[in-house]
Amino acid sequence: MSYLRLIQYKMQSLAETVALALNVEVAIADKNLTRIVGTGDFYTKIDDVCADDSLFARVLQTGESIINLTRDKECMKCSNKDSCLEFANMIYPIKENGETIGVLAFASFDPEQASLIRLKKEEYFNMLKKTAGIVEQEIINIKMTNKLKKDTTEVNEIINCLNKGIIILNSNDEIIHINSKALQILNINISHQKIIERNINKFIKNIKLSHNWNEEIVDLWTINDRKVRVIYSINKIVLGDNEFSLMISFDFMSDIINLVKTHENKEKIYFKDIIGRSSAILKAINKSKIVASTDSTILIEGKSGTGKELFAKSIHNESPRRDGPFIAINCASIPENLIESELFGYEKGAFTGANTSGKKGKIELANNGTIFLDEIGDLPIYLQTKLLRVLQERTIDRLGGEKYININVRVISATNKNLKKMVAEGEFRLDLYYRLNVIPINLPCLKSREDDVFLLSEYIIESLCKKMNKEKKFLSLEVRDLFSKYDWPGNIRELENVLEHGVCFSMDKFIRIENLPEYIQEEKNAHVLEIVEEKSLEDLKIDFEKSVITKLIQKYGDSVEGKKLVAEKLEIGLTTLYRKINE
Ligand SMILES: Nc1ncnc2c1ncn2[C@@H]1O[C@H](COP(=O)(O)OP(=O)(O)OP(=O)(O)O)[C@@H](O)[C@H]1O
Hints:
The chain is α/β, with parallel strands linked by helices. The protein folds into 4 domains: 3-144, GAF domain (Beta-Lactamase, 2-Layer Sandwich); 162-255, PAS domain (Beta-Lactamase), CATH 3.30.450.20; 266-444, Rossmann fold; 452-582, Helicase, Ruva Protein, domain 3 (Orthogonal Bundle), CATH 1.10.8. Helices cover 46% and strands 18% of the residues. It contains 23 helices and 21 strands. The chain has a 5-stranded antiparallel beta sheet with strand order 2-1-5-4-3, sandwiched between helices. Strands 7-6-10-9-8 form a 5-stranded antiparallel beta sheet. Strands 12-15-18-11-19 form a 5-stranded parallel beta sheet. Strand 9 and strand 10 form a beta hairpin. Helix 10 runs parallel beside helix 11 and helix 21 (537-556) packs across helix 22. Mean pLDDT is 85; it is low at 259-265. The structure holds adenosine-5'-triphosphate. Adenosine-5'-triphosphate (ATP) binds at residues 274-276, 302, 304-310, 374, 416, 456, 492-493, 496. Keywords: ATP-binding, DNA-binding, Nucleotide-binding, Oxidoreductase, Transcription, Transcription regulation. InterPro entries: AAA+_ATPase, AAA_lid_NorR, P-loop_NTPase, Sigma_54_int, Sigma_54_int_dom_ATP-bd_2, Sigma_54_int_dom_CS.
């Protein structure tokens, strides 16, 4: 629809006023030569299309005005000349951005009117020009209004998409935009329309608007007599003519904390980050890769430090839920009286000390993602029943809540306890055990993982050296020997700790026994005693000689120069040293 059409009624009334004041008839035709406004004889011809060889058409084509006061040769070219009743007319182009989009005409249908126009030609032409100017201005206004409406809709659309509360104020601190998240956070029982143009202080009592711009501020706002802890920032937006508005963006502090926790857990770990080539670990990785693409409930069993959390994260990050949250909760590390509210959340006022606005539980936070229930064997038996319902019905009810909330989570649980034994002893619900143990994944302990201890050591040492800004280090032969004999009750976590100690205290490129924590060194002595009891004195002498030579070569180097030094230290000839090395 053309802009002229949009302002048709307004222009009709303008035309009637002008016609009355000047004693002429007025018409406006649009770009398609359709008459859209008309007074007098023109009125009955509204919506008629003018001839395309008419004067209207010519003004449209050339963009030049025409004054035709005598029905002279100008009219002869018009195919409508025989039925035309006009005695005189003047036509002016209506332009928008330099383009002619219509025409405005003054015309007379009786001789008296015509002689008036002829008499006051200049004044009439001036009025015609001014009236065309009014029409053009009106078009600009309607365009601006349309654009503003569109901009407002766009701004609203944009700010509604933001996952933050956004309020925009004008220079009188009145709300001119507010997004749905803000309405939700403020929990104000008032419609969007009713809040617009109301002063911000009516809703947020103690908001400080004169703060440093763009800085994140943590503060307590009073909303509906509730104190709410928020983090907010204010940006000043300068509009034309020194008009400015303020944009307040804010969040509940508790939401931010939950978000941070969620992201902490969402550290991107994939199967490729799980180090190991032993058949036992490869079996676990392959099984996990297959189940990652499904939504099945998984139970990861393994001793402490075997990588249960690492597996849970990899499964999540390589599952269709990878873009959703990964929320971990350790059932053993939270005091028993807090587990229920941590897991299931609570409604406001559910118990003394509860957050006044209620709180989402971890399961609810994991909606559309994965909940990782670590150390599930430590979940108190009365909560096992509640968890069972979550697994069966996929709904939760918050503490003190009256309604069930639908949730869509994948459950991965982990344990280092023998759940089957716990079931037999009545410490774990059998039905819950079956629900959790749909796909069991068993993680092998480090001791049973063949040479993985060295592969893992290499990987861990490399990342530790990078972290500590040290040159690349290697395990000495003695340490390798110890590592392969040690039981590793703390599995990979223990290996990480032992190596951190080693890297920290090693002064050259080898990590030696003396660089390791003392309890491991004692372990070595225990092994020595075992060995002493098992071997003859002659064998022990050979072993000792071998370890001394190895150590000295590690210290002075494998070069001829290094070996000369070693022979000197041991007060033996170089040939004897070579023979011993060969032996
Ligand atoms: N295969 C592996 N490759 C690399 N790092 C590993 C591997 N397995 C475990 N780790 C590392 O060992 C440490 C312990 O792993 P994780 O926390 O996943 O074990 P866990 O079985 O969940 O332990 P816990 O039962 O004590 O909670 C982590 O730092 C982890 O990155």
